[in-house]
């Protein structure tokens, strides 16, 4: 690892290269899975789309393919594009093809959205599914709110600082009543998406942000450094788990505009 730093309730790990980052990410997720299965008997994980999925790929290789207790995994999407499940844009398809077709997850534990209804209906239905699984304790409930407490939510970040499908200056950032909401005007195509809201993300036991490449360096700086009041508030900066742990996995180009003081804190 090139550098690491702990500040308040978040930790940053900056890696020399993507290979090293992927190994560390697989180790970290495997450890969280083991701890959760030991404590609760299950591991409820929610994923986003984008490059983080291929960066999670080592989880499906030795030794993790054999050591992770895959049948205890319950898989969700922190955001999903409202397209058919077999469409190239589907986050479900991406994760299935790259990860879950390679390890013995239980098909009925994989909770993808209903792709045959509108974005609004898909969000409502997805929230209903999550509510049922909170009732049956597959997903825990937050100690501080009525929100679900996922064992882990894995997020990427766009170069505009968006996370999940929570985009800068979008009213979706203010949604606090719903657990899952929808947008029809995503600046990143495709336009129709469902997304966990900030209260749900911030209620998780663990949140991981996986961000690589120099096109993200400005947004990483805005998300993590002590920015002035005239700096734009990027959604990634609003990811602040109430009780849970926040971990950023970065490569050196993505971390290139961070204040060096981050690493001595
Ligand atoms: O479905 C999506 O589009 C996402 O969930 C989105 O939030 C993604 O994670 C980021 O845009 C980062 O994507 P990249 O890592 O590919 O840049």
Describe it for me?
The protein is α/β, with parallel strands linked by helices and 265 residues long. It has one domain: 3-Layer(aba) Sandwich (Rossmann fold), CATH 3.40.50.1360. It contains 7 helices and 12 strands. It has helices at 18-40, 52-55, 64-67, 91-100, 119-135, 198-201, 217-224; strands spanning 3-7, 10-15, 43-47, 73-77, 79-81, 140-141, 148-149, 152-155, 180-183, 193-196, 206-211, 245-251. The strands form 3 sheets. The chain has a 7-stranded mixed β-sheet. Strands 5-10-9 form a 3-stranded antiparallel β-sheet. A hairpin with a 2-residue loop joins strand 1 and strand 2 (10-15). The longest helix is centred in the N-terminal third of the chain and has 23 residues, at 18-40. The radius of gyration is 17 Å and the shape is globular. It starts with a strand and ends in a 14-residue tail after the last strand. It binds 6-phosphogluconic acid (6PG). 6-phosphogluconic acid (6PG) is lined by residues 48-52, 79, 81, 91, 156-158, 162-164, 188. 6-phosphogluconic acid is lined by residues 48-52, 79, 81, 91, 156-158, 162-164, 188.
Key structural traits:
265 residues; alpha/beta; Rossmann fold; seven-stranded mixed sheet; three-stranded antiparallel sheet; 7 helices; globular
């Amino acid at each position: 690892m090139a550098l690491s730093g702990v500040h308040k309730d978040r930790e940053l790990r900056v890696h020399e290269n993507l290979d090293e980052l992927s190994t560390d990410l697989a180790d970290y997720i495997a450890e969280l899975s083991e701890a959760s299965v030991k404590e609760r008997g299950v591991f409820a994980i929610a994923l986003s789309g984008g490059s983080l999925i291929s960066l999670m790929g080592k989880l499906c290789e030795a030794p993790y393919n054999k050591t992770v207790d895959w049948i205890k995994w319950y898989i969700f999407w922190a955001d999903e594009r409202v397209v058919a499940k077999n469409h190239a844009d589907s986050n479900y398809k991406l994760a299935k093809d790259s990860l879950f077709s390679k390890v013995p997850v239980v098909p009925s534990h994989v909770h993808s959205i209903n792709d045959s209804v509108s974005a609004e209906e898909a969000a409502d239905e997805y929230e209903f599914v999550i509510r049922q699984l909170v009732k049956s304790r597959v997903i825990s409930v937050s100690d501080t709110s009525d929100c679900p407490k996922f064992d882990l939510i894995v997020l990427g970040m766009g170069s505009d600082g968006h996370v999940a499908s929570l985009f800068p200056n979008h009213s979706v950032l203010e949604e606090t009543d719903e657990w899952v909401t929808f947008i029809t005007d995503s600046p990143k195509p495709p336009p129709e998406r469902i997304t966990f809201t900030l209260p749900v993300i911030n209620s998780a036991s663990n949140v991981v942000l996986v961000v690589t490449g120099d096109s993200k360096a400005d947004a990483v700086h805005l998300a993590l450094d002590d920015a002035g009041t005239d700096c734009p508030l990027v959604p990634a900066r609003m990811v602040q788990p109430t009780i849970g742990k926040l971990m950023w996995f970065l490569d050196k180009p993505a971390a290139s505009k961070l204040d060096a003081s981050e690493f001595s804190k």
